[in-house]
Amino acid sequence: MTELTDRYLFAATRSLPAAQREELSRDLAERIADTIDARVDSGASTPETAEHDALVELGHPAVLAASYSDRPLMLIGPRYFLVWKRLLIFLESFVPATVAAATALGLVLSGGGWEIVGTVVTTGLTVAVHLAFWVTLVFALIERYDTGAVGSADKLLGWTPDQLPQLPEVRRPHRRSDLIASLVWLAIAAGLLVWQQFGVLWIGGERSAVPLLAPELWSFWLPYLFVLIALEAAFAVWIYRSDWNWANALVNVALSAAFAIPVIWLFVEGMLLSPEFLAAIDPYLDADAERVLSVLFIGGVAAICAWDSIDGIIKAVRGGGRGTLDFPGNRSPRRAEG
């Protein structure tokens, strides 16, 4: 088994739960070996090109994995699913944000106030929904009426074995970058908690000594947040050393809840922001703007913490992060250590 086959197995199994990964890897490895032998014996390929030709014959690893794992790509149909998915993700990544930004600019230039926040959010969501609907409809029509002239998914994607991802040869390369990013953001968060105490408003071109958060929070809740930041930093180091599992995922959920619940509660009770800050911005906000900003703040905190929790659970389900997958031929040091 060569590195090219290893890369194919890695690409085919990396999105599967750990329980299915080993069996599928073994079956695929046997099928690839049989296909290589058959091509050499029949003279269809030379020994030097047989492996590459066999992988081309098997097709895109994601399509093959779907057929093996009882997860058919049937939203559009296996023929066009990956093309539809790639195009939709590409368009959704920038079109709604671009339209929302253009809308915001137009409203600001026309003299709009805080009410533009709700309009911009609604516009972005509407564009995202319409984009998903119409792209899906177009592919559904292609799926229904195409007679074969368009070609297979491999042809549409332009897939070849040369596009297979590289094997994770170095242990924890992604976890090191994750650790650095986590520690940097936690340090920034701690710095902002201190910096906000000295004023976040500029009046007449000069910063005013109006804190963002209520000074009374220094009696308990702000030190609590500093302790939570320290625990998050320690947890990030622990994840770097041990990788994701169910126990770590549950700890991650607990840490997220320990941040979200108090912050949202303090905000709802009117104890999070300082009275001086609220008094300074009150003339610029009407009731609707305050309501919209409150919903955005609560929803944003809840969404960020929920996403962080779900991300940890997904990594635990997959048996860890990238670079720690157990599949035949994986040369990662972690497998060797087992």
From TrEMBL:
Keywords: Membrane, Transmembrane, Transmembrane helix. InterPro entries: Perm_prefix_1. The keyword Translocase does not apply. It comes from the Bacteria. The keyword Glycoprotein does not apply. The chain crosses the membrane at residues 87-110, 116-142, 179-198, 218-240, 247-268, 292-310. NCBIfam families: perm_prefix_1. This is Permease prefix domain 1-containing protein.
